[in-house]
Amino acid sequence: MHSVMKQTPGKIFLAEQRDLLETKSFRRYCTFQFGAYTNEHKVPFGSLLAVNEETLAGGQAVALPAAATACVLVLPLLGAVQAGTSLADATRVAVEEIWVATLPAGGTLHLQNPYETDLVSCLHVWVGVEPGPTPCSSQTLAFEAAHPTNQLLELLPGSGGALPCRASLGRFTGRAEAAYHLRQPGVGCFAFVLAGAFEIAGRLLHANDGLALWDTRTVEVEALSNDALLLVLEVNAPA
Description:
The protein is mainly β and 239 residues long. 0% of the residues lie in helices and 50% in strands.
């Protein structure tokens, strides 16, 4: 009698099913419900409130209010973006850099395209923080992702328990495999494919697909294309 491998519980969020909000100034794809967009099938995954892909036209800016206290990560995908809790304190963040800050409820994330004509795009990730005194200080950290390492490297090293999540990024060659080990029991994992295709925990994902996983300590990853780029977030799992 053959044994059957138990599949890790999870839910796929397909790129083509993301919500799209588009104006002359910006284009925003939302993996989960965000702002005025509500969807009972796209509720936050535990403390992971939002995973948004934002494209800004030349010289344009957006102001995104925080409905609840949240740690925000901004990861440029194309060009550089000005990010800050106000336009006055905005910092220029480039590809292979990540900007992170904690916004209080009622605070605002400002994103601006510093170029007059070129488009820029970035990912902005929102992770809920327990209510209480939260600093609004921000930091920008650099990392290397231009060349395949075939492993997931932590983007926020040394943050310890100061941040409510862990973020890792890896660029892979085709058929390269890796295992992501969650740091503690009871947390959830959200994988988001930035480029290429992957098999993650037995599921096939393509660019801009997301996968939420829970009740596991290890996530198996295999790249199915060259220059495949994967972001993995470790967050508090749903209750």
